[in-house]
Amino acid sequence: MKIDDALQKAVALTNDKTENRPAPRASETKATVAGESVTLSPLASQLQSIEAAGANEQVYDADKVNAIKSAISSGQFRVDSEKVADGLINTVKDLLTVQR
After folding, report:
1. Left (φ > 0), alpha (ψ -120 to 50) or beta: where does 25 sit?
2. Which of 40, 52, 57, 59 is most buried per CB count within 10 Å?
3. Where is the Anti-sigma-28 factor FlgM C-terminal domain (predicted)?
């Protein structure tokens, strides 16, 4: 099993034709990206600011991930079945509580 860092993969953007775009609303923000004019809604602008604020935070513990990768590849990784079962039971309990 190969574990890749999905955050480092580039996302390809497609260019839409400008004649197919709806007219911008007064509350939308205009920006220029790579020579293209882009219109952002207030929600998109808010999401961008949240993303920028969280960009400096580490999403995961890289050392722990590397240790797990190493243990898996060397065949030394052990799964605690009791811990997995307890987590599964707790998840089911939470799901049943939420549905009521």
Report:
1. beta
2. 40
3. 37-90
